[in-house]
Structure formats: structure tokens, C-alpha cells
Amino acid sequence: MLEPVNVLMAGVGGQGTILASKVLAGAAEKAGYDLKVSEVHGMAQRGGSVVTQVRLGEKVHSPLIGEKTADIILAFEKLEGLRLLPFLKPGGTMIINDQEIPPAPVLAGAVEYPAGIIAHIRAVAPDTVVVDALGLAAACGNARAANVVLLGALARRLPVGEELWQESLAAQVPARLLEVNRAAFAAGYGL
């Protein structure tokens, strides 16, 4: 019996966090897993946080992931990864995009963007994978596919076959953008 796998995704509005969670949910469903998904995206259109919780397994009763219970955190931005670090279970994996998107207080000059985020995360979570998702996506033809690069890095660590990820990606991404997204997924999957 597969115990539920807890995946916490966090980013900033416009980074494609919701799309990534839909692709994950579609692939997990195609693999026959029970799953629960919870999304929080209150001020996402104003550059605020977007957090998605996805739990998949043989039987899942709740969509919520508590502190120290996330198997994997997929952070689309460094500060979001730092903010959700308390949710990572001991021995869990952090996959983090090496990108900084300053929040409103930083832009207003009220505070500084924290330095040394990656080093701090690695000190707490040795199994941390840092990804230049923007660079890899740009090399594939569209920097906006950075979310799919990160999704590819995540896919490699979940018990769902690559072909099911591809099917789910095709179901969620417009046909005109499918090839660049397939290339972005492959770039992340190869990490």
C-alpha cells in the first residue's frame, strides 16, 4: 500500500503554480492514485503567494499538509521555498527555482530581500535541488515554461510514469505551446 505522498508547491502569482498542480493531479489520477488538492491564491494577481497542496496515494482522506509532513516542496521562487521550509519533513526533498521575485515590502524599500536563502535551506534540508528553471525554459524556447521545467524535476521523484505526465501535460497546455512545454518538461526530468 502506497502511503500518501505529500507535495507542496509554492510560487508567486503568474509563475504557473496552479497549472503545475493540475498537471500533477492529472498524471496521478491517470496512474490510479486517490488524490486531494488544495489551492490558496488570494492575492496572486497582485504578485502574492500561490500555494498548492497535492496528496496522492492509495487512499487520501484530507488535502491538507501539516508542518513537517511534506515529502517534497516545489518552490517556484527562493523566498517562497524559505517560507514553506517548516512544512518539509525530515529527510524530505526541496526542489527550488533559483529565482528572486521581490515581494511588495522589498519593492517599497521597507525590508531587504534575504541573503543566503539557498544556503539556509540546504543546511536544514540536505536533499535540496536548485534549478535554473528560467534559464532552462528560455533555452527550450519560452522562459514562461519555467514551471514545467520544475514539474519535470518533480516528476522524476514521484511514482508516476513519464508517459502519464506527458498525457496530462497535453491535456492542460494549449496545443500551440505543447512542444516548448514538452522540451521544458524533458529538461527538468533530466536533472
Descriptive report:
The chain is an alpha/beta fold and 191 residues long. The protein has a domain at 5-134: 3-Layer(aba) Sandwich (Pyruvate-ferredoxin Oxidoreductase, domain 3). 39% of the residues lie in helices and 23% in strands. It contains eight helices and six strands. It has helices spanning 17-30, 78-84, 104-107, 117-124, 133-140, 146-155, 162-172, 178-189, and strands spanning 5-12, 34-40, 49-57, 70-75, 88-97, 128-131. The chain has a six-stranded mixed sheet, sandwiched between helices.
In short:
The chain has helices spanning 17-30, 78-84, 104-107, 117-124, 133-140, 146-155, 162-172, 178-189; strands at 5-12, 34-40, 49-57, 70-75, 88-97, 128-131. It has 191 residues and is α/β, with parallel strands linked by helices.
Key attributes of the depicted protein:
191 residues; alpha/beta; Pyruvate-ferredoxin Oxidoreductase, domain 3; 6-stranded mixed β-sheet; globular
Identify the CATH class of the domain at 5-134: Alpha Beta
Strand order of the largest sheet: 2-3-1-4-5-6
CATH architecture of the domain at 5-134: 3-Layer(aba) Sandwich
CATH superfamily label of the domain at 5-134? Pyruvate-ferredoxin oxidoreductase, PFOR, domain III
Which word captures the global form?
globular
The main β sheet shows up as: 6 strands, mixed
Oligomer: single chain
Q: Output the CATH topology of the domain at 5-134.
A: Pyruvate-ferredoxin Oxidoreductase, domain 3
Beta-strand share of residues: 15-25%
Number of strands: 6
Which percent bin holds the helix content?
25-40%
Spell the H/E element sequence.
Answer: EHEEEHEHHEHHHH
Which structural class is indicated by helix and strand composition? alpha/beta
Please compute the radius of gyration using only Cα atoms. Answer: 16 Å
The number of helices is 8
